[in-house]
Fold:
Amino acid sequence: MLTVPQDIKILIVDDVTDNIQLAMNILREENYQFSFATDGIKALNLIEDEKFDLILLDVMMPMLDGFEVCKQIKEKKKNRETPIIFLTAKSDIDSLEKAFELGAVDYVIKPFQPGELLARVRTHVDLYHSRELLRQANEQLEVKTKLQSQRLKQELEENQKEMIYALMEMMESTSDETGQHIRRVAEHSKLLAHYSESLSEEDEMIVYYAAPMHDIGKIAIPKEILHKPGKLTEAEFAIMKTHAEKAEEFLKYSHRKLLRAASIIATQHHEKWDGSGYPKGLKGNDIHIYGRIVALADVFDALTHKRRYKEAWGIDEAVEYVKQHSETQFDPVLVEIFTDHLPEFIEIAKIA
Structure:
């Protein structure tokens, strides 16, 4: 809610107390609240502690003149935007020009004319409050826009997750990938991302939600190849390998964060560190970190669990395979993370 202060506070700074009293007597008819100071140092101390709606500032004062006080006010956060009207007994051009250069909004020549002083103070108080209302409105609009943006972003991400879950169910029904395999790959991938120094917490969650899509391209592979219990022929394996390219075709038009990550993972998780993988023969860091993570997670889980075409390997045997294929099949940094935190990966492998 936008609010205008009910008690308008004015600071009067003048080394002549009669001038302060005169200004207060004139301005009292507007029900303003007053504070006063008889020198610049006292004025600056008051400004440190209180917020004012307008400052009437004498130019000629001992110790600190009005120009220096104005300069220091504008250098402080508090009251920086408060309008300053100079009180001066002279109207020479140089003094007025300096006052405006320092940030003053107006000046009043002494001795005061009641009507002029009232009009100038009222005008600048109203302008100040109008600016404050506009600032409040802009801040509220900015907060509202940010909250709406966050809500829409969250809704979009939730929609992406729902789409991923729906595609996962479709994949489970058409391939030999089980729901537990998909879950374990996601957990392994999240753990690798968590310990990767180059990745953020957001990356960790992106990998976690996108990793289950790693074999989405298999829905386009003929069932007789996908469900074949024995070893694939060379020709059949060539067809099987196209699932990575098929995934890219499915997802390439999406610009949504999770689906873009899913596209990268599904396309690149069969690439190898030494460039001998598929579909593009990418090498080393040319393979996206998401793809390198899921490559290790997928192979480790596939080795340690039974498939139509193979029996499960023992944990030690699978771990040794990962170690031996560091710098050839797998990113050596990820292999080091894997071995350094092996007990955690083994616990995930036990999910059944």
Q: What stands out?
A: The chain has 15 helices and five strands. The chain has two domains: 9-144, 175-349. The chain has a mean pLDDT of 87.
